Amino acid sequence: MSISMPMPASAATPARTARTLIEIDRLNLYYGDFHALKNVSLDIPERAVTAFIGPSGCGKSTLLRSLNRMNDLIPGTRIEGRIAIAGTDIYSPEVDVETLRKKVGMVFQQPNPFPKSIYDNVAYGPRLHGIRKKSRLDEIVESSLKAAALWDEVKDHLKRSALSLSGGQQQRLCIARALAVEPDILLMDEATSALDPISTLKIEELVQQLKDRYTIVMVTHNMHQAARVSNQTVFFLNGEVVESADTEQLFAGPSDSRTEDYISGRFG
Amino acid sequence: MNLLQGGNRHQIARRRKIDFCLHLLFAAATSVGVIALCALLIDIIIDGISRLQPGLFENFPSRRAERAGMKSAIVGSMYMLCIMLPISFVLGVGAAIWLEEYAGKNRFTRLIQLNISTLAGVPSIVYGILGLTLFVRLLMLQRSLLAGALTMTILVLPIIIVSAQEALRAVPKSRRDASYALGANRWQTVSRAVLPSALPGILTGVILAMSRAIGETAPLIMIGALTYVAFLPKHMLDQFTVMPIQIYNWLSRPQPEFHELAAAGIIVLLAMLLLMNFAAILLRNKFSKIS
């Protein structure tokens, strides 16, 4: 598969030796009897894009969903080990899961706007957290839609149903909705896999803009995407981290033969 | 052209014949129900149309057919509906929310679920016995409007719970995920992301349950609702009657005039049921356009 897409300029710059924001230390996760994550240790740098790649069922989405504790919603999930964000263990009892999810936003595989107006979708999060004032909400909606590169397309019909937007617009609306609660981290779970190439490109460009302000962790099935947009790439196989390295380094010269087999298309 | 001539003509003709016969059979099966219903409606309308006059709505029951009406029964039915609607809505939808959104899926909740489904099929007279023991005797509400409304509430609760659960279950999980991922807690997610999408389905279920309730007779006779009420209930502990009881009373008299009155009463009751079902359909269509 060869895709000739303009390579966003900023992706070519090597990962800055940034501060680690998320530390994962010997994490084990079980769904009932199924051992989904095996002894995963990983550092995720601040204000950079980290991509998780690997075949289906390798645990990359599971790890992503552990970072904002969405796995808590799945009955029978058991977790051992430690995930610390800015030094705080997010599974410790004093951490409030609602506050955590406010700080760690998430965008899903399928665009999932609420069947409400565009405005109400973006204002949903701020309203949850107690913002009532119309003028303040207006500001947040505008700045979030601008940050998600959707403002120019929708500014004249904010009252229109979010479901009237195209798939790519809906996904950018979901990004705007996540940004509206001012997160530090943005998790993207195969956020472009349901979109057409042009919408995908728009979202990739958006990710490049957002990484200056947010720490982005994305799961992708598309290795070209990981190569194009990420600074760090992590390769998963059967619930284990096989290799984690600077994206250029990982794709140019993987140190593990399994990584090489996967990125050269020998399996997966 | 050989391509189109290879078919087995005999076999094709046979297949068409079978298709045609079954088509006839299914149409006949449908028409049996429709014809029976039409016959019933026509018969009732012929009997009752002459009695469908203002007097029917304005007069109280009377020994003399020309002066008899069902004012107290219509008002009684309305009052009962007004009392049971909010109670059964809160209890039924509340139970459905707990079962679907809060309770874990374990043996205990499965047992409750089984119970509710079973209760939905229990004959209504059994609820009458329960109402008699619990509300009329134990809580000493006597044969009051309140006791009747509470008995009916219990009768329709399983129907409301089951339909509300179905409506909640139909809301996609991705919508809940979206809400939780923004930092919503359980109630915020239920009230802002789930209920708005489930509401049309819930309301449809509630309206259909209400229309079942206004047609029920047996449990109210069981708890001792009066058949002859020549006054309007003034408060919730007053005695009362409802439309189906009045109809039942008229039908049990020997004079043909009262049978005509009963037919007129049935027309009024049917019209009300039709109106409620129509409202349910309107609601469903209105909301399904939004979500």
From TrEMBL, chain A:
SMART domains: AAA
GO-annotated molecular function: ATP binding; ATP hydrolysis activity; phosphate transmembrane transporter activity
Organism: Thermobacillus composti (strain DSM 18247 / JCM 13945 / KWC4)
Membrane topology: Peripheral membrane protein
Compartment(s) where it occurs, according to its Swiss-Prot or TrEMBL record: Cell inner membrane
Keyword flag Coiled coil: no
UniProt-recorded name of the protein: Phosphate ABC transporter, ATP-binding protein
Pfam families registered for this protein in UniProt: ABC_tran
UniProtKB/TrEMBL annotation, chain B:
Gene Ontology CC: one annotated term: plasma membrane
Segments crossing the lipid bilayer: 20-46, 78-99, 111-139, 145-168, 261-283
Domain ABC transmembrane type-1 stretches: 74-279
The organism's place on the tree of life at top rank: Bacteria
GO BP terms: phosphate ion transmembrane transport
GO molecular function, a single term: phosphate transmembrane transporter activity
Annotated membrane topology: Multi-pass membrane protein
Keyword Metal-binding appears in the UniProt entry: no
Major localization class: membrane
PROSITE patterns: ABC_TM1
Metal-binding among keywords: no
Cellular localisation: Cell membrane
Gene3D superfamilies found in the cross-reference section: MetI-like
Alphabetical keyword list: Cell membrane, Membrane, Transmembrane, Transmembrane helix, Transport
PANTHER family: PHOSPHATE TRANSPORT SYSTEM PERMEASE PROTEIN PSTA, PHOSPHATE TRANSPORT SYSTEM PERMEASE PROTEIN PSTA-RELATED
Family: Belongs to the binding-protein-dependent transport system permease family. CysTW subfamily.
Protein name stated in the entry: Phosphate transport system permease protein PstA
Protein species of origin: Thermobacillus composti (strain DSM 18247 / JCM 13945 / KWC4)
Organism ancestry: Bacteria, Bacillati, Bacillota, Bacilli, Bacillales
